[in-house]
Amino acid sequence: MTKVISLANQKGGVGKTTTAMNLATALAAVQKNVLLVDLDPQGNASTGFGISLKDRTPGTYEFIEGLEDSKECLRATQIPGLYILPASEHLAGAEIELVNVDDRENHLKNGLQKIKNAFDYVLIDCPPSLSLLTLNALAASDSILIPLQCEFYSLEGLAHLLKTIQRIRTTINPLLQIEGIVLTMYDRRNTLSAQVAYEVQNHLPEHVFKTIIPRNVRVSEAPSFGKPVLIYDVRCPGSIAYMNLASELLSRQKS
Amino acid sequence: MTKVISLANQKGGVGKTTTAMNLATALAAVQKNVLLVDLDPQGNASTGFGISLKDRTPGTYEFIEGLEDSKECLRATQIPGLYILPASEHLAGAEIELVNVDDRENHLKNGLQKIKNAFDYVLIDCPPSLSLLTLNALAASDSILIPLQCEFYSLEGLAHLLKTIQRIRTTINPLLQIEGIVLTMYDRRNTLSAQVAYEVQNHLPEHVFKTIIPRNVRVSEAPSFGKPVLIYDVRCPGSIAYMNLASELLSRQKS
Ligand SMILES: Nc1ncnc2c1ncn2[C@@H]1O[C@H](COP(=O)(O)OP(=O)(O)OP(=O)(O)O)[C@@H](O)[C@H]1O
Ligand SMILES: Nc1ncnc2c1ncn2[C@@H]1O[C@H](COP(=O)(O)OP(=O)(O)OP(=O)(O)O)[C@@H](O)[C@H]1O
Ligand SMILES: [Mg+2]
Ligand SMILES: [Mg+2]
Question: Using CA of residue A115, residue A118, residue A122, residue A125, what is the dihedral sign?
Fold first, then answer.
């Protein structure tokens, strides 16, 4: 049974792309078949896997609009078992084009119906907004995984995001669950990280992953080599944390 | 002569809000009359100035849609000479509502025409996207100030943003200038910051501000107190950098 998970948070720069890429890599490393959907017109996940700008069409845009055969839109990555739907700048146009189309929130869901059974996990990397692209992702998903940077503004955005999830449950996707909240860029050197972690663990204990992703410069170096940090430097603190996150996610599935 | 400047970059979490708030504060400190427009539905700039969630309507949404008298939408801040147009969640609705409206990119511009002469500077804090709200900001602006986090993904987004600016010059705003690129969250401890700074300073020397904003935990602590860092801790490295940025901006105006 394929599980579709959206990595979403309207706050920018909280680690959505980094978490999507490395969770996908860690799951593929334990023999899961994984599809990563790059739904952000910035195309950071596509860059992070070394997909050149010239090789991104057809990609997610053509897939959503039904312009190409789905299989043509997929790309293999350097990781066995991990495929990606790459994002190009065209995707920014989809935001406006979809507004006046019937069933506008379900285009991605309808596309994924045709191919998702070939995968154990589909992870969707969302742009930093609650716009039509993100609504398409949440309509297509079984659950949402929320990366939360250990900063004040992130905490403030969480309340707004949880309200939006409630609204989505009563409209486009009654089955949407919260997979969990993962604390990212935790910096032991400053108290702000500890305060934010304490707030979230206290208010939403049932949703917060035990694994916390530390701030680790190796993580931010990896994208310039077109690799997830798990491949760039498997022994660094960031990689170890992402492997722990994957095993925590898998053990939650079982119970 | 009022100057309207957008703080924009579709990459999330690069310091748009932090730069908008502290530049506005530093300009007000040297007796300029300043209006900060919070154009992000997240409302981080409104939070950063301590505007409570209950006090944000009427605000930017009502101002853009022409639902209220402009003066009703403005709020004074704790800083003399600095006013804010606060953002509420309604603003997220404007993205979809504006798509089918005539002259959809010029709603903010038309609204600002009526009130901007009361100010020396209008700074617009944009959401992390190139959507209709950001297009409204760029249509209304004399120039764009681009905060650029010293990270690889930011660098990649810059090329895309510069192309978008070219497109805007040939469509909705032929007069749009580039005010400059300001490097943010520079971390002396890691080489990535230095590499990104070197790349930008080498490729676009005429656009990069000499002032670089260092990563400084006091900056990220300030929002939880509802104050810009310039008020929260005027002597910290972040505050000193923002004051230098304001004087660099002012000296560029004169020449
Ligand atoms: N654990 C970490 N340690 C250090 N840097 C990190 C870590 N996680 C992410 N980063 C860096 O922080 C920046 C933001 O991360 P990322 O791009 O994954 O966030 P995002 O939420 O996807 O951003 P956007 O909102 O623009 O889509 C990137 O430059 C990334 O390399
Ligand atoms: N110089 C700095 N040193 C340390 N932290 C900083 C600095 N500048 C900004 N921050 C923190 O980094 C985070 C991102 O900054 P900010 O919210 O201003 O970016 P943004 O571009 O406005 O984000 P968004 O794309 O979500 O609108 C915030 O938590 C902020 O407090
Ligand atoms: Mg991202
Ligand atoms: Mg912001």
Answer: negative
- pLDDT score of B119 more than 90: yes
CB contact under 8 A, A132 and B44: no
Task: Order the strands of the B75-76 sheet from edge to edge.
Answer: B75-76, B82-85, B34-38, B121-125, B3-7, B143-149, B177-184
What's the mean pLDDT when you consider all of chain B? 96
How much is the pLDDT for A254? 77
Closest ligand 2 atom to Cα of B44: 17
Residue B224 to residue A13, Cβ atoms within 8 A: no
pLDDT at A95 over 90: no
Q: Within an 8 Å CB–CB cutoff, is residue B130 touching chain A? A: yes
Say how far apart CA A148 and CA B249 lie, in whole Å: 34
Inter-chain CB proximity A13 and B149 less than 8 Å: yes
Enumerate residues 6+ apart whose C-beta is below 8 A from A119: A2, A33, A34, A35, A83
Q: Which residue is closest to A94 within chain B, CA to CA?
A: B131
CB contact under 8 Å between A47 and B153, yes or no, is: yes
Q: Ligand 4 center to residue B40 CA distance, Å?
A: 7
Interface check B162 vs A, CB under 8 A:
no
Asked if A215 and A14 count as a contact pair (C-beta separation under 8 A), the reply is no
Distances (CA, A) of B195 to A26, A227, B198, B199, B228: 29, 18, 5, 6, 29
DSSP state of A150: S
B238 lines ligand 2 (CB under 6 A): yes
Within 13 A of A222's CA, how many CA atoms are on the CB side? 25
Does A156 reach chain B within 8 Å, measured CB to CB? Answer: yes
Query: Which of A6-20, A109-123, A241-255 comes out lowest in average pLDDT?
Result: A241-255
pLDDT band at B40 (very low <50, low <70, confident <90, very high): very high
Specify the amino acid at residue B252: R
| A149 CB within 8 Å of a chain B CB | yes
A115 Cβ inside 6 Å of ligand 1: no
**pLDDT tens string A117-152:** 999 999 999 999 998 999 999 999 999 999 999 999
| CB-based contact B17 A129, cutoff 8 Å | no
Identify the nearest ligand to the CA of B239 by its number: 2
Q: Taking 80 as the threshold, does the pLDDT of residue B116 lie above it? A: yes
Q: Is A11 in the pocket of ligand 1 (CB under 6 A)?
A: no
**Can you tell me the mean pLDDT for B97-122?**
95
